[in-house]
Amino acid sequence: MSVSRKITDFLKEKGVDFEIVSHNVTYTAQETAASVHAPGKELAKTVIVTDGSKYVMVIVDAPHLVDLKKFAAVSGMKGPVLASESEIKKLFPDCEVGAMPPFGNLYGLGVFADQRLEKDETIIFNACSHFEVIRMKYSDLKRLVNPVVGDIAKV
């Protein structure tokens, strides 16, 4: 599976400048950042969280994990937990598990982003595969996705 056409078509339709970067297959955000010669803080990883009744997308930079207690305070969700691989497969049928793009709006999911992502002009993220990423401006992602931004990462 390569970069989702759903994503590239959406970006083109919205007039966003972006670059697809191929790299060796990687399975962690930090490995991916190293593979494309980018600092981990520029690579956004996407995590799916559920409270048992709904799913949302949470975006943090590669060096950090989602702090579920902080996330609950920001989102108002009661007892949030990470979604299982089988749940993620159902939500993102066009993506490899663990390579979901940060466009929850294209999958019917609300999106939350950690405030640390706003410190960098450029953002890099998986776009449905473990061997290609998309590089674009964070401001474009924020404009297209309209995430709730807050302090939701473990530090």
How would the blueprint of this fold be written?
Blueprint: H1 5-13, E1 18-22, H2 29-35, E2 43-50, E3 55-61, H3 68-75, E4 81-82, H4 85-91, E5 110-114, E6 122-126, E7 132-137, H5 138-145, E8 148-150
Parallel strand pairs: 2-6, 3-5, 5-8
Antiparallel strand pairs: 1-7, 2-3, 2-4, 6-7
Give the C-alpha Rg. Answer: 14 Å
Distance between the termini: 33 Å
Low-confidence stretches: none
Mean pLDDT: 92
Quickly name the level 1 CATH class: Alpha Beta
**CATH T-level topology:** YbaK protein
In the CATH hierarchy, the architecture is: Alpha-Beta Complex
Anisotropy-based shape: globular
Question: Helix/strand/pairing class, anyone?
Answer: alpha/beta
Strand percent estimate: 25-35%
Q: What can be said about the biggest beta sheet? A: 8 strands, mixed
Number of helical stretches of at least 4 residues = 5
